[in-house]
Specification:
10 strands, 204 residues, globular, 24% strand, 45% helix, single chain, two-stranded antiparallel sheet, Spore Coat Polysaccharide Biosynthesis Protein SpsA, Chain A, 8-stranded mixed sheet, alpha/beta
């Protein structure tokens, strides 16, 4: 049996990311599975570390840090500055949950790799807005199915709170103009999600 399967996904036509990842996970025949998106890059250092840890029996899965580059600048702060995800795990570790902003959830010990995954998701503001519109729709539909309610308070206050969290408390302002734009866009994502969720309940 092969030691490692690398599964690469592009999110362009996906409306349920967890379902898509679980389908691909079920096809894997290897002991370990590593998920990477089409806008992410595996560095030589990360490749070497992955090949080393899968030979060890210390952990069943691993978190990876992700370094985002936005408008030509590496973001070290804000929401993306502290991002880490489980992307490498044993095939039977668990399953992916949530249709968007999905997470690999399972049972077992989890370590953290030291080498980061490189991420350059947004080639322009227009493409960023297009992705935010898509993801906020999926997220609103998911919350609606979970029975989560929206309100004028959430629409007005939550996006502002998210901006303050990312730009001030998570030090997004240290990333300059790019940090400010990222904080605004994440706030807009929150606004769209809560507004679309409110409209779903209104229509019902």
């Amino acid at each position: 049996m092969n030691e490692l399967s690398i599964i690469t996904l592009s999110g362009e036509n996906i409306t349920d990311f967890a379902e898509t990842r679980n389908i691909e996970l079920a096809k894997a025949k290897s002991d370990w599975v590593f998920f990477v998106d089409s806008d992410e890059k595996i560095t030589p250092e990360l490749k070497k570390e992955i090949l080393e840890v899968i030979k060890s029996k210390e952990y069943d899965a691993y978190y990876l840090r992700r370094i985002d580059t936005f408008l030509g600048k590496e973001l070290k702060h804000g929401e993306t500055g502290s991002a880490k995800f489980i992307r490498l795990a044993k095939r039977n570790f668990g399953k992916w949950e949530r249709p968007v902003h999905e997470a690999w959830v399972g049972n077992g010990s989890v370590g953290t790799l030291s080498s980061p995954l490189l991420h350059a998701p947004h080639t322009s503001i227009a493409s960023f807005l297009e992705k935010i519109n898509k993801y906020s729709t999926i997220e609103a539909d998911y919350r609606f199915g979970q029975g989560v309610k929206s309100s004028l308070f959430k629409i007005a206050v939550y996006p502002l709170a998210k901006f303050k969290l990312n730009y001030i408390f998570r030090l997004g302002f240290l990333d300059g103009v790019q940090g400010a734009i990222m904080a605004i866009m994440m706030s807009f994502h929150s606004y769209l999600t809560w507004t679309k969720l409110y409209l779903l309940w209104y229509k019902k």
